[in-house]
Amino acid sequence: MAEFDLSKLGEYREHNQLEAKKAKGGFPGSFWETYSAFANTDGGIILLGVREDKDGRLVPEDVNAEKLKKDFWNMVNNRQKISANIVTDSMVKIEPLEGKDILIVRVPRAERTARPVYVGVDPKSGTYRRNHEGDYHCSIDEMALMFRDATYVTQDSKVLNKMDMSVFCMDTVKRYRNFFRSTHINHLWNNEDDEMFLRKIGAIGIGEDGKYHPTAAGLLMFGYEYEITREFPNYFLDYQENRSLGVTRWTDRIVSTSGDWSGNVFDFVIEALRRMQQGLKVPFVLKGNLRVDDTPIHKLLREAITNACVHADFYGRQGLVIQKSEEGYRLSNPGTVRISITDAVEGGISDPRNGIMLKIFSLIEFGERAGSGLNGICKRWEKVYHTPVTIEETHKDGVDRTVLILSTGGNEQDVKAMLELYSDLIETPEPQADQETTNTVLKSGQQTAEITRKKDQEKAYSIQTDQDYDQETYPVVQESYIPFSSDQKITATDQIADQKKKILSLIKSNPKITRSEISKTLVLHDSSVKRRLESLISEGLIRRVGSTKAGCWEIIQK
């Protein structure tokens, strides 16, 4: 509770961050239950010398506040009374109101390394949490999560000594490596075998026997669902689209338990994200001679689903659930945020529950590591949809969950507002009255490219669908995949040559790669991939060996 004005005491009511205690008979024993509850939840203020009227109104009582304060400091440092002292002198004050003294104790949210904060010497009987109904005893699951989070290493760094690489779905590993190659074309890791590559990204580690074994992150990202549940019994992934309220029907659904796909986190994210992004408007924005199809909202959804995964407690119950409807998106993951929601929204602090998983996602440019992710999601969404983002933690039936709600509020995407979000990439000079076009410098880090912008912005920034543009003229690309230099203007011909080069690289690393896999990896339409392959065949650079389904590609050496 950030703001509290004692002079307005009568206007307050007890809630999940404010508790009043009469303390007429001396220091109340129930104080420590509330202290534990606030410390283990979101913090709060405890008022000693205040009673609650029948109508819920708070009024001061006549108590010896100085003695209460002395008793507090004697007990808070007694480990037989409470497990940790997390308050400072400035958090405990006596303030007068209506001729009576009130002791105000501000209890902060405890650092995760100090949780659980419990009453007495037994955490099983003395750990409390806070909800709107008051203080309640924590369940075994809630305590277990707090103890897991208290460690300095992240959950997913654990090496699973009883498993080997046979738990991995190698098709998923291949798919991930294709993404990695497309974002790091000349990276040295592309030349490593699968085992060494997985070691370097943190998916496997050296176990107690000196051999390589999967890490928890590697198992979650690349394992088969039936292998994952050996370590994470409650593991479950669920994507639901257009579910009607009160009716268990969906127009589309993906669940990790279906048995017709790997069931791991990486494949789930790729397939769920593709569905989440369908139907989004794409303004006509050029980068050089190339149309940029990866809009700020596409990136926002990619970051949101990545955050849900890297902050999820996969040991927890009820699994990770993503829902898409006409009202927007709802992302719900097991486990609370490891820092306060206020700190998470303000940005600048990053404390993922699954740090290795975040690294693996970051290597293919999913998510970000600046600690401002949630802050950026909120700002971008509110700017484009003009409706606030909702982030909440729930503690129902002993199960902790974090819920991110991206509601459209019934609004369409504000395209002009979305175009302003490109400002970190596009600097637009003031238009000249006698010019039909103005030159705009587009920046991406230290890389730049020149683009031409029509003076009539309404026409230049109109929303178009993919079929409205000739892919040979305006290839659709993700901006991060395009290398720029300050003295080079990228043309469509250059981009086609670059796409063919990438296809050759993918074929070299995986001769059995399919056209569909190339399309997904390079973010190209299937028809464009078909034309590039036909061009490479006609140029005598590749040939097809065997049947369409069972055959493979062969690079012709010259």
Give your account of this protein's structure.
With 558 residues, this protein is an alpha+beta fold. It is 32% helix and 20% strand. The protein has 18 helices and 24 strands. The chain has a 6-stranded mixed sheet, with helices on one face. Strands 1-2-6-5 form a 4-stranded mixed sheet. The protein has a 3-stranded mixed sheet with strand order 13-14-22, with no helix packed on it. Helix 5 (170-183) crosses helix 17, helix 9 (265-277) packs antiparallel against helix 10 and helix 10 (296-310) packs antiparallel against helix 12 (355-362). The longest helix is centred in the C-terminal third of the chain and has 18 residues, at 492-509. The model is unreliable at 424-491 (pLDDT under 50).
List the helices and strands and how they pair.
Layout: E1 18-21, H1 31-40, E2 44-48, E3 50-52, E4 58-60, H2 65-76, E5 92-97, E6 100-107, H3 123-126, E7 128-131, E8 134-137, H4 140-149, H5 170-183, H6 194-201, E9 204-206, E10 212-214, H7 216-222, H8 225-231, E11 237-241, E12 252-255, H9 265-277, E13 286-287, E14 290-292, H10 296-310, E15 320-325, E16 328-334, H11 341-346, H12 355-362, H13 373-385, E17 390-396, E18 399-407, H14 415-420, E19 426-427, E20 437-444, E21 447-454, H15 457-460, E22 476-477, H16 492-509, H17 515-522, H18 526-538, E23 542-545, E24 552-555
Parallel strand pairs: 1-2, 11-15, 14-22
Antiparallel strand pairs: 2-6, 3-4, 5-6, 7-8, 9-10, 11-12, 13-14, 15-16, 16-18, 17-18, 19-20, 20-21, 23-24
Helix pairs in contact: 5-17, 9-10, 10-12, 10-13, 16-18, 17-18
